[in-house]
Amino acid sequence: MYAASSSVSAPPRSLHPRPAAGGGPYLAPARPAAPVLGAGRARRGAVPGTQPLSGRIDLSGAQGAQLRTAIASVHRICPEFAPVQVLRRSGRSVLLVGTTGRSTAVAKCLLDHSPAWAERIRHEIVAYRSFVRHRPPVRVPRLIAADPDNCTLVIERMPGRPAALQRHPLEAPPRADIRAALGAICRLGAWRPPAGTFDAPLDYGARISRYHELGLLTDRDLGDLQKLLHGIAQAAGRQGMGQFCHGDALLSNILMSPAGPVLVDWEHAGWYLPGYDLATLWAVLGDAPAARRQISQIAQSGGPAARDAFLVNLMLVLTREIRTYETAVQRSMHDTAPAAPGAAHPGAAPSGEEQRLLLRRLHDDCQLARRAVRAAVGTR
């Protein structure tokens, strides 16, 4: 049995549109991005409690049968787990809050055992197990129990609040929160776990080619990014230029606790080109131009190769977000009832409109990053 953390994912929340201004990814004079409204998905944590199972979890019907199967898989590896509440449920997984003795725990059980999703949770289990032997320089949840075969993970529930409730925050988080989160990410980036512990989750060449085939990158984008990758490889030499990254460093995956930031959701952890986590933060801080400028300065402080690696990461992250929200917008146009990343609430704009506004901002940010990439290629 191993020790682990809080929720591996979180329930969606409703989105409020607000105008956002962005800073440039390149250190040349920071240009504000076009005003736009952001929308995202929120993380929500249930309050730890000792309520009995009855009245909190509905085990009736077909969905109840799935929950009973999930609870049984948890009890096989953690018999003392007493489920209290369903924190989040999707077609792929279910997240249960419960108690283990006097502590609160979160159990993640996979419902869709397709190879891609099974590989992700197994990768996350490997990460938590490795943290038991080799502690990273940031706070992470303790692993309590894990079963890779049945894709079940039980982790300690950490106290704290998310640094942001949405994937793309609607307004700039407090400066202290951004500073603490950025400090944790920089410490993690300077850490080098033992060789062979983690692999490289992202094949940069294949991902760039795929986005080009899908029409998300132009022919010039393809050539420019390939030139930067070639230059990075030459600068790195035989040793390679890898940096250990969280892989999904959203503010919603960082819990702000009195003892310091806690990073959760490690299913994408591994070796990336330097600055992947910084690029992720830059992409979601559209309403915090000062924070974006600080991130750009940190990325460029490592020299031209580190700057180029950050720009390659930024282009891929922004393109991924554009693809995600284009799919969401198309789905909302075909659905009779708008499908939002989170539940709507009084006063909220229609989810489809929120997604379109966010998509517009992402396209503006991508144009900004594209100009920075072309400038970087021109300096070579």
Q: Descriptors for this entry?
A:
9 helices, three-stranded antiparallel β-sheet, 12 strands, 380 residues, disordered N terminus
Secondary structure topology:
Elements: E1 19-20, E2 36-37, H1 61-77, E3 81-89, E4 93-100, E5 103-110, H2 115-133, E6 143-147, E7 152-156, E8 161-162, H3 175-189, H4 204-213, H5 219-236, E9 243-245, E10 254-257, E11 260-263, E12 270-272, H6 276-284, H7 289-300, H8 304-334, H9 351-378
Antiparallel strand pairs: 1-2, 3-4, 4-5, 5-7, 6-7, 8-10, 9-12, 10-11
Helix pairs in contact: 4-5, 5-8, 5-9, 6-7, 6-8, 8-9
Briefly characterize the structure:
This protein has 380 residues and is of the alpha+beta class.
Total of helices: 9
The major β-sheet equals: 5 strands, antiparallel
Say what oligomer this is: single chain
Number of DSSP strand runs:
12
Please state the structural category. alpha+beta
Report on this model:
It contains nine helices and twelve strands. The protein is α+β, with helices and mostly antiparallel strands and 380 residues long. The strands form four sheets. Strands 3-4-5-7-6 form a five-stranded antiparallel sheet, sandwiched between helices. It has a three-stranded antiparallel sheet with strand order 8-10-11, with helices on one face. Strands 1-2 form a two-stranded antiparallel sheet. InterPro entries: AGP_Transferase, Aminoglycoside_PTrfase, Kinase-like_dom_sf. It holds the Pfam family APH.
